[in-house]
Fold:
Amino acid sequence: MCGRYVIKTPPDLMRKAFGYTEQPNFPPRYNVAPTQPIPLVRIENGRRSFALVRWGFIPSWVEDPRNFSLLINARAESVLDKPAFRNAMRRRRCLIPADGFYEWKHERPRKRPHFAAANALVAFAGVWEPWMGPNGEELETACIITTPANRTLRSLHDRMPAVLAPEAWDLWLDCARVDAETAYALLAPAPEDTFAAYPISTAVNRHANDSAALIEPLPPGAEDAETTPAAQPKPARKTDDRQGSLF
Structure:
């Protein structure tokens, strides 16, 4: 499962790592949430290209997204066969850059958020899809593919994002020459040392909170400041949750 994640690598370093030609400029994001635009890398005109698309996959055959479930993750085990993802897996695979992700562990009296910090910039396996509405609306969307969790993260959740090693990026992205079955073989739990997880403040529960403080470890035995009235942030201005803010 991956419902929130972090992108803090500077744009110039991300560009160097993934080798796309665009020069996007964006601030770090410490609480990327579903329906918000997310950066991804895909192949366009035979080369790697950067794009911002909506996190929340909409298959092209959907008539009204308001009546369709929000698909932020796709299970690796069924991504080849599930109608929602089958065509995208064959034709529109992508890389989703990340520096870590959040997971919530069941602890009494409530779930405790943890940050799974990557040991370096990683690429989640993803698929994307263009959607066109009946009135000519156009929207590109994507989701993150998940695998069973590795031993390091299994105590938090039984699923984790599929992480592709740099040497597998070309194979995953090349939908023209690499078939879906071959690409599928690249989907496996990340090596045990890819992430280090630790508990953090429940401030991350509010998607309006977005700062480096969210990924600071919670000291053992420390009171979570988010539970005290004085620490409650002002309510965020109500917005359309289906249209996240750009970077």
Observations:
- The chain has one domain: 5-218.
- The beta strands are 5-7, 29-32, 37-44, 47-55, 73-75, 93-107, 110-132, 138-148, 159-161, 195-199.
- The chain has four helices and ten strands.
